[in-house]
Specification:
Elements (H helix, E strand, L loop, with lengths): L2 H18 L6 H5 L7 H7 L6 E5 L5 H8 L3 E6 L2 H14 L3 E5 L14 E7 L9 H11 E12 L27 E6 L10 E6 L4 H10 L3 E8 L1 E2 L8 E2 L5 E2 L10 E7 L3
Parallel strand pairs: 1-2, 1-4, 2-3, 4-5
Antiparallel strand pairs: 5-12, 6-7, 8-12, 9-11, 10-11
Helix pairs in contact: 1-5, 6-7
The structure holds S-adenosylmethionine.
Length: 269
């Protein structure tokens, strides 16, 4: 693991501990039965009852365990030891059929002992932590059963060009769309625990639509659905407004931007 990934893993270990008790993740509500999956994820993946599901970059497991509550036999993967320990603890409390593996997502196949899945799932804030999507897509293709499906819902790659802390209704362009070098950030708190006092450096990577789709196609997967949405599961700009459906939208008078995408790809029979 290079220094940037080690820095990211240290950050996510600290964030996992801060997130589990945060209002943002509402673990108490989750334990009481709240479904952490939204309508885009639920409709996109479809019925999972009786199916095996691999969740890549599962954080402390709320989404993974929500899939288990929907009847899937689940395995979650994350490189944060703290996230995996917290996820395993939640699974134990809920007595759900779930297994969590602590590994860099790129090394997932080495931990599966040949096990293959009906569904591979990942969502919201996952791929920007990965420098290269080609080996990621190969992991997905390698983890799917013949005829199995991969689903991703993510922030739209175009969002990355804007100044995300701007208070302006029309956010200004700030970054290059095609920049593939690591972006270094000085973190102070996190998106879910802004007052946690956690200060650290993180590294992330912007990926174009061409890279995302191209990596999956090059790994042998067939894209069966690609959708773009004018709303987002998480707040990106401070000016965004949350609707009753829980999704965030641009404010009135703001630009009509693509904020999120979802994609389904299948492995040939
Ligand atoms: C924003 S979370 C995504 C999960 C989900 N959307 C959520 O909010 O719970 C990103 C996760 O990716 C994990 N992660 C980042 N880089 C990784 C890597 N190289 N291998 C495995 N997990 C990684 C982090 O530990 C973190 O739990």
């Amino acid at each position: 693991m290079d220094d940037r990934m080690t820095a990211n893993r240290d950050l996510w270990n600290a964030w996992a501990d801060a997130h589990v008790g945060s209002e943002f993740y509402d673990t108490e509500g989750f334990l009481a039965g709240r479904d952490s999956l939204d309508s885009v994820e639920l409709e996109g993946v479809g019925d999972v009852s009786g199916q095996s599901l691999l969740h890549l970059q599962c954080h402390f497991g709320q989404d993974t365990l929500s899939w288990a509550r929907h009847g899937a036999k689940v395995v979650g993967v994350d490189f944060s030891e703290r996230a995996v320990a917290l996820a395993s603890d939640l699974a134990g409390q809920l007595e759900l059929d779930a297994r969590f593996i602590c590994t860099d997502v790129y090394d997932t196949l080495a931990h599966l002992d040949g096990e293959r899945f009906d569904v591979v799932f990942t969502s919201y804030g996952a791929i920007s932590w990965l420098p290269d999507l080609k080996p990621w897509a190969e992991v997905i293709a390698g983890a799917l059963k013949p005829g199995g499906r991969f689903f991703i819902a993510e922030h739209h790659p175009y969002l990355w060009v804007f100044d995300d802390v701007s208070e302006e209704i029309v956010p200004p362009f700030l970054y290059s769309y095609f920049d593939s070098k690591a972006l270094r950030w000085d973190e102070d708190g996190s998106y879910a625990a802004p007052n946690s006092g956690i200060k650290a450096v993180s590294y992330s990577w912007q990926h174009t639509f061409e890279e995302i789709v191209g990596a999956l196609v090059a790994a042998g997967l067939r894209i069966t659905s690609l959708r773009e949405y004018p709303y987002l599961a998480f707040q990106w700009f401070p000016t965004m407004v949350r609707g009753e459906d829980g999704f965030w939208r641009m404010p009135e008078g703001g630009p009509d931007l693509p904020l999120m995408f979802s994609l389904t790809a299948v492995a040939d029979e």
